[in-house]
Design a protein that fits this description.
By secondary structure, the protein is mostly helical. Helices cover 53% and strands 11% of the residues. The protein has ten helices and three strands, in the order ααααααββαβααα. The protein has helices spanning 2-18, 29-36, 46-71, 82-88, 99-111, 118-128, 158-168, 184-189, 194-200, 204-208; strands at 133-138, 143-152, 174-180. The radius of gyration is 31 Å and the shape is elongated. The chain starts with a helix and ends with a helix.
Amino acid sequence: MPEYRQELRTLGAAGARLTPYDDELPRSPKGQELFSYLPGYYETSRIMRSDAETKGQEMDLLYTALNETLDQFFVRTATWGLEIWERELDIPVDSSKPIEQRRSVVESKLRGGGIFTGKMVRNVAAAYEQGEIEVDFRPQEWAFTITFVGTRGLPPNLDDLKAAIENIKPAHLAVEYAFTYLRWDELDSKKLTWDQFDALQQTWDELEVWK
């Protein structure tokens, strides 16, 4: 038994010589928080620093998982939980779509309940397009127009928006979509020289939506 204890002391001394004191531990955020609660005389303890680092890494993983799970309860931060939202709202699940477009579809479906009004149309359309949107009703024509004012060109998920509007609007109302592009008078107001214009290196399609 005494020989065993002596061997442990020998190994411990050798380990201390082979493993220098690392004052950078703990490196994990939670490990640093744990270590800050300990008395000051543990500052030079390699064992306590390593212990805080090990526990801190596990707590970092735990809090990351908790925060990621919490994100799934909100449409604008949901990732893997979007499929649950889509199935709950009877939206076809298409994982090949960009995640922002899928979020827009879910958000518009949540906004689409209630009495059909211009405000509802704006709310649903705004879920797809973060820019300014105008809705113009023409009762005498049984129609209304959605104009994308804040964004030029076609929105990337226009088909999803059209499907959402068709789902909430009365069948007797027709809907039209208007898009904004760069106007010649607006381009003239930039007062660009030909050299400056050439330096833009814009194709015709790119120039139409240039700001």
